[in-house]
Design a protein that fits this description.
Structural class: alpha+beta
CATH class: Alpha Beta
Distance between the termini: 35 Å
Radius of gyration: 14 Å
Number of domains: 1
Helix content: 25-40%
CATH topology: Alpha-Beta Plaits
Number of strands: 8
CATH superfamily: 7,8-Dihydro-6-hydroxymethylpterin-pyrophosphokinase HPPK
Order of helices and strands: EHEEEHEEEHHE
Number of helices: 4
Length: 152
């Protein structure tokens, strides 16, 4: 059985555009997982962080992996891309956030679904609205309208 999951993808170190594209390809290559849709690329200023602008996207996945297995696979992709976590919100070579996994509602020490801060971030809501408009309300888009973001 597969479920639809949504993953936010971001990078602001190195060749961020190439990294985001490669991450989408890597997600598509995960076991029991296929990318069903991908948003355009967006450029956004760091949110609650410093450093260069981010390149962001959102991918819709059809996956047979459960939420924790998918999260583990995503964290491996981050490590393979050179992700380090020296401090909270540090600049990063790759950031993958699991936004939703089917209808799962989880609150564990390692995973909260739906992602608790996704509606506060233009770099998530705009790409998500592009590929899954039924998941984003006009009020949610209005709430992030003041955040600097550009569709590439």
């Amino acid at each position: 059985m597969t479920v639809r999951a949504y993953v936010a993808i971001g990078a602001n170190l190195g060749d961020a555009k190439a990294t985001v594209q490669q991450a989408i390809d890597a997600l598509d290559a995960l076991p029991q997982t296929r990318v069903a849709a991908r948003s355009s690329l967006y450029r956004s200023a760091p949110f609650e962080a410093s450093g260069p602008d981010f390149i962001n996207a959102v991918a819709a996945l059809d996956t047979g992996l459960d939420a924790h297995a998918l999260l583990g696979a995503m964290q491996q992709l981050e490590l393979q891309a050179g992700r380090e976590r020296p401090y909270r919100n540090a600049p990063r070579t790759l950031d993958l956030d699991l936004l939703q996994h089917g209808d799962d509602a989880l609150d564990t020490p390692t995973l909260t679904l739906p992602h608790p801060r996704m509606t506060q971030r233009a770099f998530v809501m705009l790409p998500l609205a592009e590929i899954a408009p039924e998941l984003v309300t006009p009020q949610q888009l209005a709430a992030v309208a003041g955040q600097p973001i550009e569709r590439l």
